Amino acid sequence: MIKNRQEMVQVALESIRKKNEYSPKVGLVLGSGLSSLAEEFEGDTIPFSEIDGYPVPTVTGHSGMLRLGPETAVMAGRFHYYEGHPMDTVVLPIFLLKSLGVQTIILTNAAGGIRHDLAPGDLVLLSDHINLLGANPLMGPNDDSLGPRFPDMSEVYTPDLRRLAKEIDPHLAEGVYGAVTGPSYETPAEIRAYRTLGIDVVGMSTVPEAIAARYLGMRVCGISVVTNKAAGLGQGELDHSEVVDTGKKAEHRLRRLLTELVSAVRQHY
Ligand SMILES: O=P(O)(O)O[C@@H]1C[C@H](O)[C@@H](CO)O1
Ligand SMILES: Nc1nc2[nH]cnc2c(=O)[nH]1
After folding, report:
1. What phi and psi, each to the nearest 5 degrees, are found at residue 48?
2. Tens digits of per-residue pLDDT, 256-266?
3. Which tens digit of pLDDT belongs to each residue from 235-257?
């Protein structure tokens, strides 16, 4: 299994290296409705379809391209467990970013707000997460040259990065992200249960990526865009097209946060 993943990384890396040789230190993954933020960052645009062995996103709002430049590598789109991908594929972008030279990763997503003070359009800086996916991307044989068999997860979201983000946007909310498989949204009863667990925002991604990134020794920052109140807390039914639309509307505030955070990271490390 591990061999497969490392082979996939190698194949993908070789096809990217035919296009450019940049080794940026900062990586970003853009969630639902956030793909156009990639244009904020300098680099060559490489469609996922031109990266050998790389899947193409099947979800609206994930454009499916890598923007690779001297300072940043931006994945506009990601692979979700609910799309039917094995965990190795879900975290392939993280292993690939690591092999490109990335040391700090900023993971973004669209999420449902569970905590009462969170409204659509709000940004939430992740302080921690709860993995309800029933799977972990590090299961299977371990390659000790990449990371430890039992990696510590007591500080997944690097405190220093959270401090930098709060300096840029002092009103930024903080909260715990809960990852579920989806693709069905939650029932109101599930949301009440998740609240008692301490989950502030709920989504279908990010956690496997964060686990893989910490395993690989990267600094990790997580940012959720609250695209809707979670099931039973708002009005009406949940709909992915609204998730994408609200994600796009939050782009302005997120754009400033991401661009300033990237420059702060470059100065800081
Ligand atoms: O990739 P993210 O986590 O931003 O996408 C969220 C979770 C589902 O893929 C989708 C549900 O609307 O948005
Ligand atoms: N699981 C889940 N994912 C989301 N992504 C955006 N909104 C939601 C939500 O309410 N629940």
Report:
1. -55, -30
2. 999 999 999 99
3. 889 999 999 889 888 888 899 99
Active site residue 171: no
Domain ranges of the chain: 2-268
CATH of 2-268, one of 3.90.1200.10, 1.20.1090.10, 3.40.50.1580, 3.40.50.720: 3.40.50.1580
Least trusted range by pLDDT, from 33-37, 60-64, 104-108: 60-64
Q: Is the peptide bond before 183 cis (omega within 30 degrees of 0)?
A: yes
| Catalytic one of 205, 218, 230, 231 | 205
Report d(CA 77, CA 59) in Å as an integer: 9
Interface confidence (ipTM) of the complex: 0.99
Mutational pocket test of ligand 2: of 227, 237, 246, the residue with most ligand atoms within 8 Å of the beta carbon: 227
116 is catalytic: no
Which ligand has the minimum distance to the alpha carbon of residue 226?
Answer: 2
> Is the torsion defined by CA of 128, 36, 250, 73 positive or negative?
positive
- The verdict on the CB of residue 133 being under 6 Å from ligand 1 is no
Total-model pTM: 0.97
